[in-house]
Amino acid sequence: MQTPVPDYLKHVLSQCQRNVGGQLADYIPELAQADPNKLALALSTADGMIYSSGDDGHEFTIQSMSKPFAYALVLEQLGIEEVLQKVGVEPSGEAFNQISLDKELNIPKNPMINSGAITTHSLIQTTAGISRAEQLRRFLSELAGRELSFDEQVYTSEMKTAFRNLSIGYMLRTVGALDTDPVEIVNGYIQQCAIKVTVKDLANIARVLANGGLHPKTGECLLDRAVVRQVLSVMLSCGMYDAAGDWLTTVGIPAKSGVSGGIIGVLPGQVGIAVFSPRVDEHGNSVRGIDIFERLSADMGLHLMEGTPSAQTIIQSCYWAGKNDDVRVYELRGVLQFTESEMLLRNLQEEPPGDTTIVLDLTNLTLIHDVGARMLFEGVERLQQDGHRVVVVDSEGILSEAQMKGNKRVVVKEKLTKYLEKFQ
Amino acid sequence: MQTPVPDYLKHVLSQCQRNVGGQLADYIPELAQADPNKLALALSTADGMIYSSGDDGHEFTIQSMSKPFAYALVLEQLGIEEVLQKVGVEPSGEAFNQISLDKELNIPKNPMINSGAITTHSLIQTTAGISRAEQLRRFLSELAGRELSFDEQVYTSEMKTAFRNLSIGYMLRTVGALDTDPVEIVNGYIQQCAIKVTVKDLANIARVLANGGLHPKTGECLLDRAVVRQVLSVMLSCGMYDAAGDWLTTVGIPAKSGVSGGIIGVLPGQVGIAVFSPRVDEHGNSVRGIDIFERLSADMGLHLMEGTPSAQTIIQSCYWAGKNDDVRVYELRGVLQFTESEMLLRNLQEEPPGDTTIVLDLTNLTLIHDVGARMLFEGVERLQQDGHRVVVVDSEGILSEAQMKGNKRVVVKEKLTKYLEKFQ
Amino acid sequence: MQTPVPDYLKHVLSQCQRNVGGQLADYIPELAQADPNKLALALSTADGMIYSSGDDGHEFTIQSMSKPFAYALVLEQLGIEEVLQKVGVEPSGEAFNQISLDKELNIPKNPMINSGAITTHSLIQTTAGISRAEQLRRFLSELAGRELSFDEQVYTSEMKTAFRNLSIGYMLRTVGALDTDPVEIVNGYIQQCAIKVTVKDLANIARVLANGGLHPKTGECLLDRAVVRQVLSVMLSCGMYDAAGDWLTTVGIPAKSGVSGGIIGVLPGQVGIAVFSPRVDEHGNSVRGIDIFERLSADMGLHLMEGTPSAQTIIQSCYWAGKNDDVRVYELRGVLQFTESEMLLRNLQEEPPGDTTIVLDLTNLTLIHDVGARMLFEGVERLQQDGHRVVVVDSEGILSEAQMKGNKRVVVKEKLTKYLEKFQ
Amino acid sequence: MQTPVPDYLKHVLSQCQRNVGGQLADYIPELAQADPNKLALALSTADGMIYSSGDDGHEFTIQSMSKPFAYALVLEQLGIEEVLQKVGVEPSGEAFNQISLDKELNIPKNPMINSGAITTHSLIQTTAGISRAEQLRRFLSELAGRELSFDEQVYTSEMKTAFRNLSIGYMLRTVGALDTDPVEIVNGYIQQCAIKVTVKDLANIARVLANGGLHPKTGECLLDRAVVRQVLSVMLSCGMYDAAGDWLTTVGIPAKSGVSGGIIGVLPGQVGIAVFSPRVDEHGNSVRGIDIFERLSADMGLHLMEGTPSAQTIIQSCYWAGKNDDVRVYELRGVLQFTESEMLLRNLQEEPPGDTTIVLDLTNLTLIHDVGARMLFEGVERLQQDGHRVVVVDSEGILSEAQMKGNKRVVVKEKLTKYLEKFQ
């Protein structure tokens, strides 16, 4: 059989096709020349699957959708605390092109409005000869998994009418939020906005965030978990401009739109979503794009508040093994965070005191968080106090050195079947 | 062994004990007489476990923590659309005691500020002889699982100095947001705020939201899923007043505070949390309460953006059964939403065309959402088109009539083992 | 002949009759029942002449036009400094019915918006058994020169729907701007607004301000000069609500409107003006009333910035008298303030040193300000130093004791002709 | 004798010398190097006298005090209506360096804030080869009565750090308030601000406004009366930035400050005032300058609301002339506006019907406004209807052709004495 997911995406696109509201953004000639009928949707899962439909090979400029990733890059480079000194995290309640400085701190309210994005751009650290925009292009290429390029025509055209961004740049210079030539920074910022992407690129980028910063296939850590949390939080509260409350209730997906007609969304732990349709509303958000997001949220339950309880599935199986059926085995599966650990410990609580050998098998875990490791070993210790012999089987090496610290002696690196042989 | 979770809670409390910032709220004498050293924390899991620590039996008035539940009640009674005509969902960017009317619609910006909460109170539907406050008390008692009562002294005292709320009430009357006597409504609202609760009550109430509106033990539907989504979304964007962006990044838990010193939080699908410590900051938020939430979020990864991928655990096991090992069995586990269904279908895709009997066992699912059911049966149909014979085993009756519609003939209600016997 | 001034007024009224814009105020039934075609205009001169035209005997409620006079009354009773602690003088930039508190001081921004007017009403000092509204009625009756009365029907009707004012009252109580029962104060304020007046009453009241607080005929001091200055300044910057700059440029007359359709205006030193036409614009200002004021300003040059230089006319005549034509006489006329004194002294400067007898005749002065008296006597002293004998003739007693202090010996109280006889 | 006015000025200066509040403006190096102890005051009368004290020869840059005069220049060049399409007249309620655009019209709120001043600068009409700043320099030189020059050092220095003005310029370009290169306009605006003046220059400039736009000595019309009215109105409501209401009540003089430490003020019909002291407060207003203005207002009654009634002095004398004492002569004096005309007509009303020859002598009038001429000839006509023969003696040619239109036959251009000879 063929999974019907691609058909779902097609169906959603066909439903939105009737929606012809909105206008092509016209503040730069290149955007006004876009084909208004282009329509594309891509959806990627946290574990690396990607579906797409419509004009999924069509390239467009990333525009404001670059903002969360420039923010992610500087958070990685400078750390959250240092960046918070320069750009806030509060919704501005104003249109995206307002200056919106925090009154007390004199810093832009958040990195999703232009003043915050220009300041963020200025914070990108580069090595000699590499521009900030190029640095970001490389970073996005890594997340997208292919080499992205700049749309020089859009970039050149936009620089000619970048009055508002120049105004914002000079104001940032005035208040000290920028300490270098505003024209150069605005120039770089506009180049950043001219990186070309497809919906598939965006969905690939989004799934890195959906997957907690890890490469969905290699497992390589591309972004620190805390950075992902920060970026997604700011996307949620500041990403869709004015009507944050409306977006949160009706869609409930951290997202960011670009005036070229794209919207990129991330449902943590689940999916990355990207849409493209160039007709935008008065806020600069793609009209069909919003429509699509609303349908995905309503029809597919893709909403942040539709929390999926994963705790109940943490114990894959529990059985007696060994020649005498006297070895107690717990096979775990999924991700071990607080709620899963709590469930695990609650089950371990049922073990009566005694001198049983208890085996906790981590082989099928996809991830173990620090809190999960802490709670796991706390449970191990308590079982030991009850008289048991406890062994943690980590054949895949999912535990980090730091997580094992002080508990190495209970961890074995063999496969479970291999380990259990000794009890035969 | 004993689960270490209670010890974690105790540890968190002890760390916060050093924090003596904030002041007792003094705008009504009763609050000013609270014991400033009282401190309590309760945590409940979506599946019905509850942990608590500190002064967990101490009763205090619910105050503004009643707001999300009055909102939930009227959403249930009138439907989301009708309530949206009366009270918005946008953050106000202003202090809780401002009037904050939406300029175009002349309705309160959201139900978490006083003007919105007073309007919400006025929308509570009651039967003759039952006051709105009493109606809410009964509703909260049901969620909490015990009969709650009013603190008459606080209520009477607060009425005497309710100048600001009376001012707000009259302004709402002026703009038409209220159409009845403001004094009566404000009176009722203040009584609503005087319902007495403990942190355990609050944690019990919170877990109904965490569990998607279902009673965590009986599975009874106490709140519509859409209502839960709406309430949690509004708590997230408007619950902690001014610094919504800061709360979202550093805590990331939909929450609501009360000036008496409590904070109630909900992490959807995972936990309900309630804290109590009566010293509040200038926004009326419990100082230690915020401290506790920050620690829980940072130390335990309890943050909305720490999404747990549950998709990978949806297939509990997959094996060949039957005398001839020619019956293909998929045992599912957990909750079947979009991402889990996508994963299931991706696996089913691997089945080569043929005339195999394929059994999908739902027995261990805790919940199947509509989108999950739709995708399941879509997969069934496609497998049939490939020539397979497909059977859905639903021995627990987890599928609703509506979900099964048109597919009843593939569903069997027997236990899996019983059903498989026919292939022996 | 007959002065054409009444014909001018009639002409202005007839021109405005074509203007049928605006609506009857409908927030209380009584105002909505007004005859929309009523139209009246009165103009009074600082020296006591009054002209009127149209429905000049028609009574209407004073409404917000009571605000500057309640302010004047409390300024008289408490002093400017004390009142400034309670009500500011800054334009609010908001509609009249907003609360508009100064953010730092938590006091209403000015006495012309409702919050400021309600606070001002609460400051009226009365003796036992006399209500604040009655105290103001007596004060206005004195200024108007006839006994005014309350419109009980309007007052009773307005109290029933005074939701906004009650809201404002409770908010003022909350922030401490009121320290007594808001219902009682709002009640009194609404009664204050129900005092009945005609345009002639208003013009009579206005000319007291135009005349520096003096009764235009008896010369009795009804209002302190500093109070007049304060009241007129506040009327200018805050009297016509939102578009203060537009009013100032196109009309340039300190004024206050009432929702009943009246506008009262004062051009200091020149005229008092009152108009009535009950159709009001969205700001609650009489549409025809504004039209009339604009015509009076444009056509008759009645604009604050059309300053009339009076300095050049201060010396009525200057001549030699006495048998030997050796007594130098300066007859003064008009009002002696700084600019006139400067002109006088500039002329006296021309007197060569010598032992001439110099007579300064104040008989035809209408007023001598303190600064005028100071400069006059300073000039006297300098002439004496030059060797002259100087005499100030004050047959009408225009100099106060305080003004003469230390210079009594140069002042004679005889008539000039009588005094000059001794030189014959 | 010597007029004591200079001593008064000296006295005021010496009182302010104790006031050492404020700081040198430091946003450009040149201003920060000013001598903080410099102190100067000049006062000019509407008829051309000038007094000055302190460092009255010290030159400083005009800065924001150029704003009202650039506004006056473009009002003259384009007319009030056209300029109102580009720059409003409403107080902004914001600091001078905010952009403050009118929300509906997208134009700067007024010409006294930087955005309005930059837009105003762009409106200056010039001929080829003359920059806008040079055009204004010539205009100000004419008003000041001497050739002013630019401070090139200040200008060059300020251009280097003109970030805020560049930001404002680009924003104006964005919203279409500017339609040319913002850098060029801001450049010109900063040059305009670098015109060097002394307090005497400023007082000379101010008195042209005080004198209704006429050269105080030659009587030449340098500025249209309507323009003067407009400029003074805007100075009053927007000139001293934030605390317009406070300035109006406590000082009551239309004024404009510059960050270099000067303040220029105009009391229409009376005096021009200029002060200089470089220490400024947080609003950029000279601390001692404000102090001086408050003292002049309080001590000398120089306040807009201290209106001087000039009506009573319009009739210089009234007597019977001619051989038979049957020619009735009215000698008028001062300025003939509405209130003076009303007084004159009121007196003419006393003339009984008959065939008397009535002579109205305008020789001593300094000015006759259009409304005055209209009312005068209306009175003439009514006297004629009563049977009188009326002659208007205008030996100085004060009546314009337009004012005489239709009434030429009653006007004689001889001197009064010459004219009266025919009745001897």
From TrEMBL, chains A, B, C, D:
One of its GO terms (biological process) is L-glutamine catabolic process. The keyword Acetylation applies. Residues 325-393 form the STAS domain. Homotetramer. It catalyses: L-glutamine + H2O = L-glutamate + NH4(+). Belongs to the glutaminase family. It is an enzyme of class 3 (hydrolase). Its EC number is 3.5.1.2. It comes from Acinetobacter indicus CIP 110367. PANTHER family: GLUTAMINASE. One of its GO terms (molecular function) is glutaminase activity. PROSITE patterns: STAS. The keyword Acetylation applies. Keywords: Acetylation, Hydrolase. Substrate binds at residues 64, 114, 158, 165, 189, 241, 259. Signal peptide: none annotated. InterPro entries: Beta-lactam/transpept-like (IPR012338), Glutaminase (IPR015868), STAS_dom (IPR002645), STAS_dom_sf (IPR036513). Pfam families: Glutaminase (PF04960), STAS (PF01740). This is Glutaminase.
